[in-house]
Please model this.
Amino acid sequence: MSELDKIRAMAVRHAGRQSPQLPRLFAYTLDHTTEIDPLIYDPAASLVIQGTQRMFIGDKMFEYGPGQSMIVAAEIAALGQICEASEDQPFLAVGLFLDPALLSDLVLEMVAIPELPIESGYGVSTASASLLGAWGRLLELLDRPTEIPVMAQSLEHELMFRLLMGPHGGLLRQIAGSDSRLMHIRKAMAWIRDHYTERLNFKAVAALAGMSVSVFYDRFKAVAAVSPLQYQKYIRLHEARRRMIANQVSAAEVGFAVGYESASQFSREYKRLFGAPPGQDTERAKAGLGGFNPPRSLGARPDVA
Model:
């Protein structure tokens, strides 16, 4: 039995069940394909075991399937789709939300490596045999919960070490560094998420990141694959959708509440992102027809609080 087959068997047993002792570790399965749906990713590492997922980030599109690993190092806005899944061969993946403090401790133990230029806030690559082994050993703890208090930290360290030594280790080193370029961009992203209803002041947000406006704009787009203004728009629309589904408020009311000055502009941009006008989309979502909203196990959170 291959290492991926062993991981598949464990992931099937634990899919959809969260361990309170390993709250950042998840397994996820879906037995059908999905429509393209907007997502917001949190920093995480994931591994696809079976099936295929398609991602659209900015103007880039890529697919990743069995044995491929994805690292997301910032709160990325994206479009996602499960494009290969069935009842006989469901989509199956595992994921781990990243702990910056753990990464920092680990990086300090490694030989100093110069900070690399930011190319993007995410990366996909084929998992090596050593990385698959590390994933497998961490997942085995779900079958042996009594070992979690003793073994979990060292096995997570092993997984992070293998990722740090892989093709996208530079992304993880950026997360580990509190004064890294990526962390400055993430600080700006957090400010935009916290103040999404306000008019975006480029000069103020660039100053928060410690950069000139032009440098900030270029680096933000390099990480997020969208401009700061597009990122804010994405956050506003996600929050509007969440409020309408949860609270049954009208589109006009929620559009103004999340920062839009024009109801028609809100409706137009909402339809462009979600594929249907606000009322129609939220009715579909309430009926369970609103597309793919993966859980945090894949590094994605469907709603923005």
User: Anything to note?
Assistant: The chain has twelve helices and ten strands. The two ends are 43 Å apart (CA to CA).
